[in-house]
Amino acid sequence: MLARIVGIILGTILATSGYVVAGWGSLGSWAAHLDLGPFEPHRPLAGAAAAILGGVLIVAALTPRPKPKRRKPAPVFGVGGPEPEAAPALALTPVTLSRVAETPAIVTPPRPARAPPPTPEPSDFARLRERMVALTGAESWSEAAQVLLTLKTTARGDRELAVVYRDLGDFARGQGQMDDAAEAYETAVSHARDALRAAPENLTVIELLAGSLAGVGDVAEVEGRLDDALSAFEESLALRRSSGGREALDPAAQRALSVSLERLADLREDRGHRMRALDLYRESYDVAARLAAADPARFGSDLALTRQRLAELEARIST
User: Fold this and answer.
1) Are 8 and 61 in contact (CB under 8 A)?
2) What are phi and psi of 97, to 5 degrees?
3) 151, exposed or middle or buried, with CB in 10 Å at 0-12, 13-18, 19+?
4) What contacts 203, CB < 8 A, 6 or more positions away?
5) What is the CATH number of domain 244-319?
6) Tell me, what DSSP letter sits at residue 15?
7) pTM: predicted TM-score of the whole model, two decimal places
8) Is 57 helix (H, G, I), strand (E, B) or coil?
């Protein structure tokens, strides 16, 4: 509101000054003999330029701004990086019975039961990342950044590197450093693709690549690279559909699919593809409604946002 008022006042001053200086009319004698210095030979041109600029400022100040789209927050990849390998099941050792002819049965005492192997401790990478997520939740940004840099040196393998660079992208984007965010997300995508080639059926890796691509799309959209954003969002959505998404038993996978549908729908709407955007929002609404019905406390706010955006889009199409 303050920016609008300043724009109107400044625009009015420029427009009225230009009106008088250009000789189109007079508003008293306050500018009749105004010396323009080196621009005096170009008085009509200078006045016209000032009047036009003032008019532009007034129009810009009075033009209603479109409301920013309220979006669901992007899904967060599970804390801890790669899961430990499952311990093999222990074979049961039966009690041995021995019989000797014409003698009582002799039971061999059972061997002492072996203690189960200890539960694997989380890796250094997992512990560090849990700490980084906790610090971020507490808004301890400086400490979180230091832990994130340590994570970068601790990561081993494409999967952990993809997690680190995706987190770096999220952190940089949160600080408004879009160039750094774009570079980090691209690096995350590269590592995630390599990890997926090594484990093409791993749903966690598929989600990691989908989330990294969504980050690429978000930054590209902010920077106005809409073709790049569209490509990234479409691939992210395709990956989440391929991993089950709508039919998945995991609510987080279904929510991630809903978010991808809406990211792509918003971009389609911005490009004028309103009917395609409407179809995507309707599909997202179906997913969000099932999630909210199963867990209203967790997913009710998501459904409210989707319902609001769907109603807004339907209203714009019907007018």
Assistant:
1) yes
2) -110, 135
3) buried
4) 243, 244, 253
5) 1.20.58
6) H
7) 0.64
8) helix
Spell out the residues 6+ positions from residue 300 whose beta carbon is closer than 8 angstroms to its own.
Answer: 292
Question: What pLDDT digit, counting tens, does each position of 37-92 carry?
Answer: 666 666 677 767 777 887 777 777 676 544 445 666 665 544 333 333 332 323 33
To which H or E segment does residue 43 belong? helix 43-62
216 half-sphere exposure, CB direction, 13 A CA radius:
26
What is the identity of the amino acid at 235? E
Please report the DSSP string for 238-275 in residue order: HHHHHT-GGG-S-HHHHHHHHHHHHHHHHHHHHTT-HH
Comma-separated ranges of CATH 1.20.58 domains in the chain: 244-319
Q: Which two tokens stand for residue 1?
A: 């509101």
Six token digits for residue 249: 């038993």
Neighbours of 252 (CB within 10 A): 14
Instruction: Give, to the nearest 10 degrees, the angle between helix 178-198 and helix 203-222.
Output: 160
